[in-house]
Amino acid sequence: MRSLKYAILGLLCRHPMTGYEIAKEFNSELAEFWYANHSQIYPELKKLNEEGLVNYDIEISGEILEAKRYTITEEGYKDFKKWLNKDEKMQKTPKDIFRLRMYFSGNLNVETRIRLLESQHLQHHKRLNTLKKKYEQYSEVPPRDSDRFGDFLVLRGAIMRQENIIAWLEECIGYCKEDDRD
Amino acid sequence: MRSLKYAILGLLCRHPMTGYEIAKEFNSELAEFWYANHSQIYPELKKLNEEGLVNYDIEISGEILEAKRYTITEEGYKDFKKWLNKDEKMQKTPKDIFRLRMYFSGNLNVETRIRLLESQHLQHHKRLNTLKKKYEQYSEVPPRDSDRFGDFLVLRGAIMRQENIIAWLEECIGYCKEDDRD
DNA sequence: ATTATACATGTTTGTATTGACATGTTTTAT
DNA sequence: ATAAAACATGTCAATACAAACATGTATAAT
């Protein structure tokens, strides 16, 4: 389905970027729903260029260090818009290794289950705090046609998702701790 | 990390199964957090057998139809238990194409956004109803050491997650519909 | 009888993805 | 001065995964 292609084109719609900047964006801002290594990004940019969907200019920093700053072409923008307008089927529930473990937790003693659950709880809680800090930067809902509106929607989604996972983990801990059920 | 390996071993801990049955399980019961095609499962079973983690007996249905019923070995069980006890790092947030779209939704007119959001909403709502029906089969929390306890935990998790996605989608629709903000 | 569905097991091809390998420059802090 | 961190771009090998190809048998419904 070439999702990476559209993730890159979408970013380039905002403004021209280098591969390095795209990689950074994938591994910080967008990381709540997308990510990719530079080892995937550079070949994809090369391919997009060959397909005529992006162009680049070479920038020099210092004496010789070269950076290719990519710009989306007319054709690239058309392609992206077409993809963005498509109504796609709901995607498969993503794989989740921790849930897989919990599915098999009947094979663990109760103490271990609680230990594993609490470790996840702690980690997800930290994640949530980071997200909340980011959220504080928004004093109001950004205008609907700005890029920041999209950022805002997915940030809200990330926070809600994180809170939900935490609630589930707490419920699980509760079920594990309930004594003397029969 | 060979997660498929452990997903299969985990199932075989419960009782011996054929490849076909494992595939079915992956695409119905476990589907809320795991899935795999038979084209992945059969080669993996072969590999596990070569590694001595599973054995199989051949069963004949009717005249000649053969099925390999796999059983976990002592060694396989040890390997599985070791994996299950490990406290692993929280996994990366899964990729989500719809969120990627919403991230870029500044490029869409408001009507299209609402259309896309409502399409997702409808689909996730159907999914939720299916899950709730499954949940009705539990009149109480199953005993902690039964296989059904694990089933119950992940089913609860799936319902909560689904409800959360729906809440997010509704919030997004709300933000898109708000008129005359400035 | 015939047809559809479920049972049953495999291989092959193409794509996606990760992690490691590989190389170098520029800037910032000490 | 020098060391560390950030900038910058690429390739390669291994794994994971999906979709299609390939080939049948058994059972239930009509």
Return the CATH architecture of the largest domain in chain A.
Orthogonal Bundle
Query: How much helicity do the residues of chain A have?
Result: 55-70%
Number of strands of chain A: 3
Say which CATH homologous superfamily of the largest domain in chain A is assigned: Winged helix-like DNA-binding domain superfamily/Winged helix DNA-binding domain
Per the CATH scheme, the topology name of the largest domain in chain A is Arc Repressor Mutant, subunit A
Instruction: Assess the beta-strand content of chain A as a share of residues.
Output: 5-15%
User: CATH class of the largest domain in chain A, please?
Assistant: Mainly Alpha
Largest interface: A-B, 76 and 76 residues
